[in-house]
Design a protein that fits this description.
348 residues; Rossmann fold; 2 domains; four-stranded parallel β-sheet; 13 strands; binds beta-D-galactopyranose; binds calcium ion
């Protein structure tokens, strides 16, 4: 995907950034300015992975800059409310946005946004939280960029199985089973549900005997995961041998809880995350996380930028390899201490 960027670098895009709350935001008068406006609406600004993805989106747009066109990116945080996001989309459209990138709060509830966009003929690139297929099919101005959740959970399970097979100390009480807990993302989020299912499936496929101690929801959030883990440590003491977290932030929150507990490191379980955020990768370097699965934010941001530019300029759409008509799915990759350096380089 990144290789193609060069080919559309001449598209004439200068990305400037306008974040909610900064003076001047929302007051632009695009009709008169000759600039392009991209509106970005995302579900929650406390989400580490999405903040890193959006940083990459802005810098990749900037890479495509030329002299004669300027693109302003206007970002809105829905703080977890679909109603707020619906209003923000309305505001972005009336501010004159030419393209929208929308990370839905509730993936099952995009109809108001789709109706608005369609009425004003403003195309939408949905990202990371995938609308159901019937909704995406409502209009050919709707796109999706993301990744296949099955793959991430399965890879996390394979990473865990490799470690369990190669290091007998993982089964600390030596009972032939791995006592584990899962820290889950949001209730009802497809990535959370599917990752939780497929990680266990992969471990079982690899012949690992498991004993589930607990599943806890921590909403992708480090502080919430620390809190849940504190309770689990209280309940299970040093019985927990494996922590499977639906993302890196929650794996790190679980680690925070152990580091603050009076367990010695020898009594720590092993931790696996998903995402490969900056902090997640650094924890793999330090062996604090046993592994993670790279959620290709640069690839996803690049595909979003590429589609946005094609929509703005009317050029380059045919170079994009879509699946299911108007979707782009970037592959996940396994990350361990052995290959982590290559992933650290990507964010630079
Ligand atoms: C997932 C990601 C999580 C969180 C979530 C938000 O793909 O792994 O860390 O960002 O999306 O929808
Ligand atoms: Ca055991």
């Amino acid at each position: 995907m990144r290789g193609k960027m060069g080919r559309i670098a001449g598209a004439g895009i200068l990305a400037a950034v306008c974040v909610l709350g900064l003076p001047g935001c929302g007051k632009e008068q695009p009709e008169d300015s000759g600039k392009n406006y991209i509106g970005v609406a995302y579900y929650n600004q406390s989400d580490t992975f999405l903040n890193e993805l959006l940083d990459s989106f802005r810098s990749q747009l900037k890479e495509m800059q030329g002299e004669d066109t300027e693109t302003v990116v206007m970002i809105r945080d829905a703080a977890g409310s679909q109603r707020t996001q619906d209003d923000q989309v309305k505001e972005l459209i009336s501010a004159g946005c030419d393209v929208l990138c929308v990370n839905l709060v509730d993936r099952a509830d995009p109809s108001e946004i789709i109706d608005l966009a369609r009425e004003h003929e403003v195309p939408i690139i949905f990202f990371n939280r995938e609308p159901v297929a019937e909704d995406l099919m409502q209009w050919d101005g709707l796109y999706y960029v993301g990744a296949e959740a099955e793959q991430s959970g399965y890879m996390q399970g394979e990473l865990a199985a490799d470690l369990i097979k190669s290091d007998s100390r993982t089964d600390r009480n030596g009972d032939g089973k791995i006592q584990y807990v899962v820290l889950e993302g949001e209730l009802g989020h497809q990535d959370a549900i599917i990752r939780t299912e497929t990680v266990v499936e992969a471990l079982t496929d690899q012949g690992i005997e498991l004993e589930k101690l607990s599943y806890q929801i921590a909403n992708w959030n480090r502080a919430q995961a620390e809190n849940r883990m504190e309770q689990l440590i209280g309940q299970y003491g040093s019985q927990i041998e494996l922590v499977l977290a639906n993302n890196d932030d929650m794996a790190l929150g679980a680690l925070d809880a152990y580091e603050k507990s009076n367990n010695t490191e020898a009594a720590f379980p092993v931790f696996f995350g998903i995402d490969g955020t900056k902090a997640g990768l650094e924890a793999v370097v330090d062996s604090r996380l046993a592994g993670t699965v790279y959620n290709d934010k640069e690839g996803q941001a690049g595909a979003m930028a590429q589609i946005a530019v094609a929509l703005l300029t009317g050029r380059g759409m045919e170079e994009i390899e879509f699946q299911k008509d108007r979707c782009v799915y970037l592959p996940y990759e396994k990350v361990t201490k052995e290959n982590v350096d290559a992933f650290l380089m990507r964010g630079l």
